[in-house]
Design a protein that fits this description.
The chain is mainly α and 270 residues long. The chain is built from 11 helices and 4 strands. The radius of gyration is 21 Å and the shape is elongated.
């Protein structure tokens, strides 16, 4: 959502009085004029989802926690405090993984914390410099585009190319309307599924240098954990369908190795 009060303060500083005869400043289009189209610093955080992943000695990944913080139960300060609490409780040297977090998530987090007078937990002070930390912040958008030297991509483009489930509850442009309409369950679903998609994309990225566990196996475990933890969400049926489709394709391709790929089948049959 937008901080209209803060944006009005900006208009006063610039001596700008909106009127029908001057909807934008001369030489600007509406989307370019910050006086009529508030820029990111006036965005407020209504919803956040954080997935805490752990890696075992064999290279597998599991979901330890899946935390959702959102209006209407929580205001922006409470949402930000919840994010900081997750960071504070995380093990030392925990890494952050985002999609375009350097250009969006981290600046919004820092801006919000400054507005509300919140302090970063011990060990996380590096976030105040924009999130640039080669060892502790993996921005997959930067990794995927050579540090944004290639043209930036939408997350949904990459997910489609990789056949990773994403944007299951609504298209990205619809989220603002859902917020204004107070459809908070749908807003939470949209936020959560982006986190799930990013975790699955991380599994593919890790596979470039770590072949101990197949990326599709890591992805399946993540999806199974999410299905269990968020069984009432509207996107669960789509995740289950994706799992069935992915397994059917693998089974058809390597039927003779089914006992290796899916040792749980005999257990289900029993």
């Amino acid at each position: 959502m937008l901080d209209d009060i803060g944006h009005k303060r900006y208009q006063v500083m610039e001596r700008w009085v909106p009127s029908d005869d001057k909807p934008i400043r001369r030489g600007y289009t509406r989307s370019e004029d910050p006086l009529t189209c508030p820029r990111w610093v006036f965005q407020t955080i209504t919803t956040a989802a954080v997935m805490v992943l752990s890696e075992d000695a064999q290279g597998g990944i599991d979901v330890d926690r899946f935390v959702t913080l959102s209006a209407p139960e929580q205001n922006e300060r409470a949402v930000l405090s919840g994010i900081l609490r997750v960071l504070a409780e995380a093990p030392s040297e925990t890494e952050i993984v985002t999609w375009a977090g350097l250009a969006h998530d981290i600046p919004l987090l820092i801006s919000g914390c400054m507005r509300h007078g919140l302090t970063l937990p011990p060990g996380w002070g590096w976030l105040m410099h924009g999130g640039f930390h080669k060892q502790r912040h993996l921005d997959l958008a930067h990794a995927f585009t050579g540090g944004m030297r290639m043209k930036p991509l939408h997350l949904s483009e990459v997910l489609a190319a990789m056949d990773i489930p994403g944007k299951l509850s609504c298209p990205p442009f619809a989220v603002t309307g859902l917020i204004l309409a107070g459809e908070w369950d749908k807003v939470k679903s949209a936020c959560e599924i982006d986190v799930v998609s990013t975790a699955c994309l991380l599994a593919r990225w890790r596979g470039l240098v770590d072949a101990r566990v197949a990326a599709v196996a890591v992805e399946d475990r993540i999806l199974r954990r999410v299905i269990k933890k968020r069984k009432d969400r509207e996107y669960i049926a789509a995740l289950e369908a994706h799992r069935r489709k992915r397994f059917a394709a693998l089974f058809a391709k390597t039927a003779s190795d089914a006992s290796t790929l899916a040792p749980w089948l005999d257990l289900d049959a029993a």
